[in-house]
């Protein structure tokens, strides 16, 4: 009589697919559950039409909410979507202070305050049109005030 040694469980346990549970369900999971329900329903007593319509409506609503969520996340993460004109339009009728520089030395020659009358765009950057007739890039502003 031959005896066999103990079976090493690592041969068959390591080859099994391991499932990692998830705390959330996405639209694919919802659709998969719905399909399993349809496949396993009793043919002599099929699912009530109104329940099926309710589930499809829930699925459609879930999909729309997921798409909206993705769109909002994309917009929040990509601030370059917003036009510089829209981004700086709140500065119209505000007083802004900026410095003028000597082109040769780079030293400040004057500090000027003027009211913003309009916002335009040049090369993808916001340009503030001022009441004193000058135009400056928005990043040149050193102070914004209501007075």
Descriptive account of the structure:
This protein is of the alpha+beta class and 147 residues long. It has two domains: 44 residues; 62 residues, SH3 type barrels (Roll), CATH 2.30.30. The protein has four helices and five strands, in the order H-H-H-H-E-E-E-E-E. Strand 2 and strand 3 form a beta hairpin. The chain is elongated. The termini are far apart. 5% of the residues are buried. The mean pLDDT is 80.
Please provide a brief summary of the model.
The protein contains 4 helices and 5 strands. By secondary structure, the chain is of the alpha+beta class. The chain has a 5-stranded antiparallel beta sheet with strand order 4-3-2-1-5.
Descriptive tags:
SH3 type barrels; 5 strands; 2 domains; alpha+beta; 4 helices; single chain; five-stranded antiparallel beta sheet; 147 residues; 24% strand; elongated
Q: What is CATH's topology name of the largest domain?
A: SH3 type barrels
C-alpha geometry: elongated
On the 0 to 100 scale, the average pLDDT is: 80
Sheet with the most strands: spatial strand order? 4-3-2-1-5
Topology readout:
Elements: H1 10-13, H2 27-39, H3 49-77, H4 84-88, E1 95-101, E2 108-122, E3 125-130, E4 135-137, E5 141-145
Antiparallel strand pairs: 1-2, 1-5, 2-3, 3-4
Helix pairs in contact: 2-3
InterPro entries: FlgD (IPR005648)
Protein name: Flagellar hook assembly protein FlgD
Keywords: Bacterial flagellum biogenesis, Cell projection, Cilium, Flagellum
């Amino acid at each position: 009589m031959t005896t066999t040694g103990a079976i090493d469980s690592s041969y068959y346990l390591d080859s099994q697919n391991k499932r990692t549970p998830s705390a959330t369900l996405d639209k694919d999971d919802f659709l998969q559950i719905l399909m399993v329900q349809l496949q396993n329903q009793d043919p002599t007593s099929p699912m009530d039409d109104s329940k099926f319509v309710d589930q499809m409506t829930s699925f459609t609503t879930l999909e729309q909410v997921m798409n909206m969520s993705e769109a909002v996340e994309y917009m929040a993460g990509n601030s370059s979507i917003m036009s510089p004109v829209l981004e700086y339009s709140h500065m119209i009728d505000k007083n802004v202070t900026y410095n003028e520089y000597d082109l040769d030395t780079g030293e400040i020659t004057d500090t000027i305050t003027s009211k913003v009358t309009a916002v335009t765009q040049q090369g993808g950057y916001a340009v503030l049109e001022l009441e004193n007739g000058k135009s400056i890039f928005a990043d040149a502003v050193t102070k914004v005030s209501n007075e």
